[in-house]
């Protein structure tokens, strides 16, 4: 059985049962580790183990440096990386600009300063071992400016840059200019082919790897296309083989593919190793590194990971980016789900089925809804969801007065953390607006992620996670709440476990 075949049998089904068809036995640990060959990543042989980058401080210089020191690849997040004062204390994020554009400039400056700080920390901890990568999201606000700013000020400290969440055509050019390697994150051969033909073929020698991120199992933002069903996961093996075939056609046979999303035990992927259809292969771990001593996430977040059960991670489309994303189905996500369910279609003119007036706003202007929806509205208002907010799709959602005030304030306080934001209608270039109504069905992603990384209640903030997070509570490695060092985790992964 190829790893991933069981995906098609149901959403988020485990790749293999403990007694999997590969015939793994504990006595095989040493032979597995001995046969796990290094791969060339960003110009140096490393263990085929890569720390997933994540965002807003969930990986930093300390964790990245520890992975590199263990002979693997460490990745610090270049998304709102933490800054420090002269005494080494974290500087709280605060925006002082009066306009979105002013706050956006602050965000870019903070991002560059923080990225440089994390690169220096990672470099020092790595002690010249492994590789150090910086991860950015191409759809983050000012992505190119932040990346260039960090690379300009941290020359020689960063060996590669991983980048997803969009189509980063300029990534190769930037990497070539700074003589580092680039590692694009894609979810299909078509996406990589488009990048290659338009831009990457001009900088073939700096392509460090192609990261295939499984859009059904990876945490955070996922690359599901409009013609892919989020409820019907596909086997990653043929999708990766398709990428490899194209890479071979264009002379990239020696460039590794990195499998990201769904990786937990390497024993489950044994038939991908030394496989001519797959070629050189490494594995990116995004979820497991969260639960290490060096991980920068707060202790209450780590505690929550140990209690997650199968099915607790929810694939949703609430993100202001418009992408699908995977997050723990906590009270934050549940509120968004309920908010979106309290939604009705409306028209400003009476039509055949939109026939009943609902009076809205200070001037009590009629908004016409169906008779059934008017009954639902009356029930929601009676339950305390008294405020109606308009969406860009000619619908109304109903929320409490306090939630409406929070939504409006968050939209006003926007600091331009995305290149395009449907929650606030911000755009980081041209006329600085998407030209659409702000969408109250979404949320301020910068605010929530900043809150959770600084120690807020994990049940009431966005908590990104891969769908395998439930394995923390099942894997004996984490028995009795054990939290390993990064070095211990790397050695554990190398055994196949």
Short description:
The chain is α/β, with parallel strands linked by helices and 497 residues long.
Give a structural overview.
The chain has an eight-stranded parallel sheet with strand order 3-11-10-8-7-6-5-4. Strands 9-13-12 form a three-stranded antiparallel sheet, with no helix packed on it. A three-stranded antiparallel sheet has the order 14-18-17. The chain has helices at residues 29-35, 61-69, 100-126, 143-153, 171-177, 189-198, 236-249, 299-307, 331-341, 371-382, 401-412, 445-453, 486-494, and strands at 39-41, 44-46, 49-51, 73-77, 131-137, 160-164, 181-186, 210-213, 220-222, 257-260, 281-285, 313-316, 324-328, 343-345, 356-360, 365-369, 387-390, 395-399. It is globular. By secondary structure, it is an alpha/beta fold. The relative contact order is 0.14.
Tell me, rounded to a whole number, the average pLDDT.
90
As a percent range, the share of helical residues equals: 25-40%
For the biggest β-sheet, the strand order reads 3-11-10-8-7-6-5-4
Radius of gyration: 23 Å
Number of strands: 18
**Can you name the CATH architecture of the largest domain?**
Alpha-Beta Barrel
Structural class: alpha/beta
CATH topology of the largest domain: TIM Barrel
Distance between the termini: 19 Å
Number of domains: 2
List the helices and strands and how they pair.
Elements: H1 29-35, E1 39-41, E2 44-46, E3 49-51, H2 61-69, E4 73-77, H3 100-126, E5 131-137, H4 143-153, E6 160-164, H5 171-177, E7 181-186, H6 189-198, E8 210-213, E9 220-222, H7 236-249, E10 257-260, E11 281-285, H8 299-307, E12 313-316, E13 324-328, H9 331-341, E14 343-345, E15 356-360, E16 365-369, H10 371-382, E17 387-390, E18 395-399, H11 401-412, H12 445-453, H13 486-494
Parallel strand pairs: 3-11, 4-5, 5-6, 6-7, 7-8, 8-10, 10-11
Antiparallel strand pairs: 1-2, 9-13, 12-13, 14-18, 15-16, 17-18
Helix pairs in contact: 2-3, 3-4, 6-7
């Amino acid at each position: 059985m190829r790893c991933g075949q069981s995906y098609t049998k149901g959403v988020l089904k485990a790749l293999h049962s403990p007694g999997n068809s590969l015939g793994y036995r504990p006595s095989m640990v040493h032979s597995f580790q001995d046969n796990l060959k290094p791969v060339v990543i960003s110009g140096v042989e490393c263990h085929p183990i890569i720390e997933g980058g994540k965002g807003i401080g969930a990986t930093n210089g300390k964790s990245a440096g520890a992975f590199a020191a263990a002979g693997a690849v460490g990745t610090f997040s270049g998304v709102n990386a933490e800054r420090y004062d002269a005494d080494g204390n974290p500087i709280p994020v605060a925006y002082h600009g009066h306009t979105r554009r002013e706050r956006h400039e602050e965000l870019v400056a903070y991002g560059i300063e923080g990225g440089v700080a994390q690169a220096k920390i990672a470099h020092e901890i790595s002690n010249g071992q492994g590789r150090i990568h910086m991860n950015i999201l191409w759809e983050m606000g000012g992505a190119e400016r932040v990346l260039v700013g960090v690379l300009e000020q941290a020359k020689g400290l960063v060996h590669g840059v991983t980048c997803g969440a969009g189509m980063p055509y300029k990534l190769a050019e930037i990497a070539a200019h700074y003589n580092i390697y680039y590692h694009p994150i894609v979810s299909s051969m078509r996406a990589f082919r488009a990048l290659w033909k338009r831009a990457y073929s001009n900088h073939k020698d700096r392509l460090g790897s192609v990261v295939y991120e499984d859009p059904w199992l990876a945490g955070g933002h996922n690359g599901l296309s409009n013609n892919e069903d989020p409820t019907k996961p596909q086997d990653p093996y043929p999708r990766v083989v398709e990428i490899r075939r194209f890479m071979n056609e264009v002379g990239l046979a020696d460039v590794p593919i990195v499998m990201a999303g769904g990786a937990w035990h390497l024993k489950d992927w044994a038939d991908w190793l030394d496989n001519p259809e797959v070629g050189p292969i490494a594995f990116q771990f995004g979820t497991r590194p969260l639960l290490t001593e060096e991980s920068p996430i707060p202790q209450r977040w780590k505690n929550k990971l140990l209690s997650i059960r199968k099915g607790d991670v929810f694939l949703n489309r609430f993100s202001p980016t418009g992408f699908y994303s995977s997050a723990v189905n906590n009270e934050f996500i549940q509120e968004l789900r309920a908010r979106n369910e309290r939604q009705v279609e409306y028209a400003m003119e009476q039509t055949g089925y939109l026939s009943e007036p609902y009076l809205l706003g200070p001037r009590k202007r009629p908004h016409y809804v169906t008779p059934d929806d008017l009954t639902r509205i009356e029930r929601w208002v009676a339950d305390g969801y008294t405020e109606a907010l308009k969406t860009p799709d000619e619908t109304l959602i109903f929320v409490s007065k306090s939630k409406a005030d929070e939504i409006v304030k968050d939209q006003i306080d926007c600091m331009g953390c995305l290149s395009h934001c449907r929650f606030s209608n911000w755009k980081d270039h041209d006329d600085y607006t998407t030209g659409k109504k702000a969408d109250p069905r979404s949320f301020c992603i910068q605010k929530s992620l900043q809150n959770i990384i600084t120690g807020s209640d994990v049940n009431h903030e966005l908590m990104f996670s891969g769908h395998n997070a439930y394995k923390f509570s099942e894997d004996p490695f984490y028995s009795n709440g054990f939290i390993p060092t990064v070095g211990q985790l790397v050695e554990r992964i190398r055994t196949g476990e």
